[in-house]
Amino acid sequence: MDVKKNAAQKQKIPNIAIIFTIITSKILSILNDLFKADPKKSQVPIFFKNSFIVCNEYRNITILPPMKVSILGTGGWGLALGKILHENGHNLEFWTPSLTEAELLAKEREYKDKLPGIELPTEFKYSTEMFGVIKDSDMLVLTVPSQFMENVAKQLGECPAPEKIPIVVNATKGISEHSLKRMSEIILSYVQWLSEEEIAVLSGPTHAEEIAREVYSAIVAASKNEVCAKIVQGTFSNKTLRVYTSQDVVGVELCGSIKNVIAIAGGIIDGLGIGVGDNTKAALITRGQAEICRLGEVLGANPRTFSGLAGIGDLIVTCMSHHSRNRFVGEQIGKGKTLNEILAHIKMVAEGVPTARSTYALAKKVGVEMPIVNAVYEVLFEQKDPRTAIEELMTRELKPE
Prior knowledge:
The chain has helices spanning 2-37, 76-87, 99-108, 130-134, 146-158, 183-190, 208-212, 226-236, 249-272, 278-298, 309-320, 325-334, 339-345, 352-366, 371-381, 386-394; strands at residues 52-56, 60-64, 68-72, 91-95, 125-127, 139-142, 167-170, 199-203, 217-222, 241-246. By secondary structure, the protein is an alpha/beta fold. The chain is globular and about 70 Å long.
């Protein structure tokens, strides 16, 4: 009797497992159909064709690769992020407007001018056909220089709307000289099939040279949609890159942009040598941060962002690091070179130069006092002597901190 009972119980176990599998499969199918029906109205945009998002009450998200991730831009930053995503098991395809560049990268598997010494995976694909690259993508990552973002966003907006809406990640730092918009605002203004729910920004103290070499680093993924930020967090995080989330898109983008202007001032200090030192650099970073905070608060940023990775963290590394192109530009000016001379020989874009113009104009527009930004603008574009600019900053009307 006991033998028959045990046999019956054993027979029930696989039956229960089969029933559970069927029910789970049905639930997942219903949820996917629900979210695919109208992704614009979905609280959680589910758009992953070849992977699952496991979401527990919108708090814990696990992403199981592979996903198709398309990166627009093949500079050092785009390639470094591509390496991270490749190591995390995702499928990568890059877009570049230059056929020569695409062929060079495919052949050499190294970009000596922008990321020297870094071997690129053989699995990387490169193309000049934007629609072909973004088609069926789960995520788009934009890494083009800020001066070209408007052009690229326009091309992206002209591509046919995808059947599934991907998450779009802006990883470019800057403010448009023409419109004074942040990069995510430019993308949204041109890409009509995209909403704020599906866009995120990635910013923090992360030089491409070190990310590509797997140096321990941390960065922030920000989106108004908390789930979107968490998906980006799960996609990029690994043992050498720790990603934190935020919902302060305004603050994260402003910090990432304006710190490049302050870094030019930091470089000027390094270049001048006599009469300046560590005290000067510390004062610059602190007061530069105060200026970023003032502008950010007027534009609706969360004050807490300025004391985090995207704020003071990124400002410190950009003002201090030998990897910083913006600090290098300032250093050369401090040594007596002109801006035109420097830009003629630098191989990569120093975002702080155009951002000095746009930040100067934006601060004037909203009525925020930014004396360091103003001084950098005058040195770069009005040929003011750097020492005169420092003396004027030091002898302004005294006030409380």
